[in-house]
Amino acid sequence: MFRVGDRVVYPMHGAGTIEGIEQKEILGKTHRYYVLQLPISDMKVMIPVDNTQEIGLRDVIGTSQIDEVLDVLRQDSTPMSSNWNRRYRNNLEKIKSGDIFEVAGVVRNLAARNREKGLSTGERKMLESAKEILLSELILASDWDREEAVNIIEQILA
């Protein structure tokens, strides 16, 4: 169970801080919800306490893992399907997993493909979304501000 003030990652949305735990009545049943503030998208999300495992809510990585994430970005890109649809679905599954190392791999691979061949509109949006998810967790795991985190990632991907 998470507590107010915990920094967590909500797959597909990014990292944020639990600002509260509220009870709401829906369809005659009372449920408890985490109120999560996502600073990157400036959004508040309510997540059912009972569904955190299925949703994949997890703690933000520790500072000791930041270098490991950056190492994933530095690695050579891995082969991806030449079929756009298959490649898109595969990358989407990796992002949905909520695993920061998988998300970093998607960012690395799509950035490399963009440099080599360009990306479709859908993949360009996916790259930006994956970068935002990656940034949100790195910012909360480190003492970096947004500009510093963006510069670090862009330098590695250049």
Quick overview of this protein structure:
With 158 residues, the chain is an alpha+beta fold. Helices cover 48% and strands 22% of the residues.
Write the layout of secondary structure elements.
Layout: E1 7-10, E2 14-26, E3 29-38, E4 43-48, H1 52-55, E5 58-59, H2 66-74, H3 84-96, H4 100-116, H5 121-141, H6 146-157
Antiparallel strand pairs: 1-2, 1-5, 2-3, 3-4
How would you characterize this protein structure?
This protein is an alpha+beta fold and 158 residues long. It has two domains: 7-58, Thrombin, subunit H, CATH 2.40.10.170; 63-157, Methane Monooxygenase Hydroxylase, Chain G, domain 1 (Up-down Bundle). 48% of the residues lie in helices and 22% in strands. The chain contains six helices and five strands. It has helices at 52-55, 66-74, 84-96, 100-116, 121-141, 146-157, and strands at residues 7-10, 14-26, 29-38, 43-48, 58-59. It has a five-stranded antiparallel beta sheet with strand order 4-3-2-1-5. Strand 1 (7-10) and strand 2 form a beta hairpin. The radius of gyration is 17 Å and the shape is globular. The protein starts with 6 loop residues before the first strand and ends with a helix. The relative contact order is 0.16. The model has no long low-confidence stretch (mean pLDDT 92).
The main β sheet shows up as: 5 strands, antiparallel
Give the CATH level 1 class of the largest domain: Mainly Alpha
Number of domains: 2
CATH architecture of the largest domain: Up-down Bundle
Q: What gap, in angstroms, lies between the N and C termini?
A: 40 Å
Estimate the global geometry from the Cα principal axes: globular
* Strand residue percentage: 15-25%
Helix content: 40-55%
> Care to count the β-strands?
5
